[in-house]
Each structure stands twice: as C-alpha cells, then as structure tokens.
Amino acid sequence: MNATAQTTRPTSQAHELAKTIRQRIQGAQLSDGSFFMTEAQLAAEYGVSRTVAREAVSRLQALGILEARKRKGLLVRHPDPLRLLSNSLPSLAASPDDWRELAKLRYALEVGAIELAIRTATDQQIVQLGQITEEMEEALREDTQSARSVRLDLAFHAQILQMTGSRLIAGMQQILVQFFQIAPHSEQTAASADRITWEHRELFNAIRDRDVERARAMIRLQFRTTLEAAGPGTD
Fold it and tell me: Which residues contact 115 (CB under 8 A, 6 or more apart)?
C-alpha cells in the first residue's frame, strides 16, 4: 500500500465514524451534557484504532457536538449555530468569490425576513426603529464615514431582524453585518449619503405602514449596493 492510500484510509474511516456518532447522538436524542463514552470505549465498540477514534472525536469537537473532559470522557453538546458561523466567517472570506457568496447570503437573509419582521413586530419595536432612523439621518448629515453612522446602520438592520422574533435570524444578521463592516467598500459622497438617508427612511415608512410589498422593494433597492460592492457575478 502506498503512502497516499495509508493516509486516505484512516481519514476516510474517521469521517465515517464521525458521521455514525453524530447520527447515534441525534437518534438517541441525548441531552446537552450527557455522558457518551470514553475515547477508548469508542475505539473498542466500533473496532477502529485509537488514532481513527481520536480524529473522529476531533471533528465532532470542532462542530461543537462532543466535548472531551479529563477523567470523565466524552460529553454530548448541543452546538450553537451562531457561534459556529461566527468562528467560520474569517476563513470564508479568502477570495472575491467568497465575498460575493457572503453578499448573496446577507441579501437573501434580509429580503427573505422582511415579511416576517413586519407581521410580527410590536408597535414599540417600530417606534424604536423610527428613533434609530432619525439618529442615523443626523449622523449621515455630519459624516457618512463616522463610527456613529456605521453603528447606527448596524443597529437599524439588527432591529429589523429582531422584529422577526427569531434568535437565529437576528443572530445571523448581526454576524454578517459586523463582518461586512471590514469588507472593501467605496467612499461615500454627499449624493450617496442622500440616497442612503432616503432609502432607510422609505424602508422605515413601509415597515411603519405594515406594507410588505413596498418594504420588500425598498430593501432590495437598498441591498443593490451591497451586491455591487461585492463585484461581478452577483446578479
């Protein structure tokens, strides 16, 4: 057996074992913190080497599904998808193609969630969105590149996604928006500041009026610039 085959076989075994363990945990509906077994017991039960067992466990640890505790063994964990996304994002932006894919993800998330946000938002949440809109307009008049303008833009979109009542949707949006603050972007001009102000105000008005179709059209228009900044290939 050549060196490549010797390397591939344990890797393939570890992949299959990790898949089997994950299915077993899901099938048994083990609760968070439940004892699973030790690494030695795992190797013995599935008839694999300790190396393969260790690699399979390592893969599941990276996904937050297992936790290794000294003198205790392996514990089942219920991973937080938001934490996994947050930890993975830096490695997902290694090329312009990656930026384009993330831009599409943010676009799909926000456009897709706007109807739910409008239908489930409380009156108080809409009032808060209006206050953020006013503060952002003031900040944009002073300086489109200021930290305050960026913070308020983040708060505006975070508030809309909070309106959905979904922790997962709101959390994903905040992670993506924060990530896009470090993305390459064009310099703002007075004209673009006026456009940004108008787009946010019109989007707020549509949400306040509970007008789903107008809000959907405005958020699509607003995120046109996000797609344009990501470069060709986003249409």
Answer: 212, 215, 216
